[in-house]
Amino acid sequence: MTITELQTHCPECRSTLIDDIHSGEKICSGCGLVAMEQMSDYGPESRASSPEDKMKTTRASGQTTYSQHDLGIRTEIAIGTKDFSGRTISSDVANQMYNLRKWQTRIRVASPRERRLANILSKIGETCQALSLPRNVTESASMIYRNFEGQAEAKGKSVACMSAATIYMACKQCDVVRSLDEICASTGSTKDEKMNVKLTAKYYRMLV
């Protein structure tokens, strides 16, 4: 906050200054002098009544998260048919935006290691959501895999079983009761359930 913003009296007539929040100006109540323009808004971003409305009107991104391979700090090209002013974009511009989004996705997960990380973190998120697990379990499972991912043993592992193993370990760390069978069944894998449980148990022992 600047010194000008802290002023409460007019520099000309010493009358009280009034903040006009709509115009962003600090105006003298006596002579009408505009003492400051384009004041910073330190108030809340919106008057949203629900978390969903707040997300729609927020001006800044959310907190970082281990559950996304880029920690949730990426900038995305939005999908839509209108520009920032509300005007409908042409088909040529829409095709250009589509191609840019496609290349953005390819570049973001360019290496095999990034693709593996993105696939497993995505499966961890889907499985935790299917099990209605709390957010701290998802974050813990994601961090567990991130710590393991740099090792040579991380290559060639089943996405579903590795995800289940990290979630099982995270549940133990967060004191959330879930069986290995229950977690494996929620991964959506079409392979033999007993084989999945056996392989998940093997991966879990590797993580311990």
Your description of this structure?
With about 210 residues, the chain is mostly helical. The chain folds into three domains: about 5-35, no CATH class; about 65-110, no CATH class; about 110-205, Cyclin-like (Cyclin A, domain 1, Orthogonal Bundle). Helices cover about 50% and strands about 5% of the residues. A three-stranded antiparallel beta sheet has the order 1-2-3, with no helix packed on it. Helix 5 (about 135-150) crosses helix 6 (about 160-175) and helix 6 (about 160-175) crosses helix 8 (about 195-205). The chain is elongated. The model is unreliable at about 1-5 (pLDDT under 50).
In terms of DSSP E residues, the strand content is: 5-15%
The tally of domains stands at 3
- Class per helix and strand makeup: mainly alpha
Count of distinct strands: 3
CATH C-level category of the largest domain: Mainly Alpha
As residue ranges, the low-confidence spans are 1-5
Task: Output the CATH topology of the largest domain.
Answer: Cyclin A, domain 1
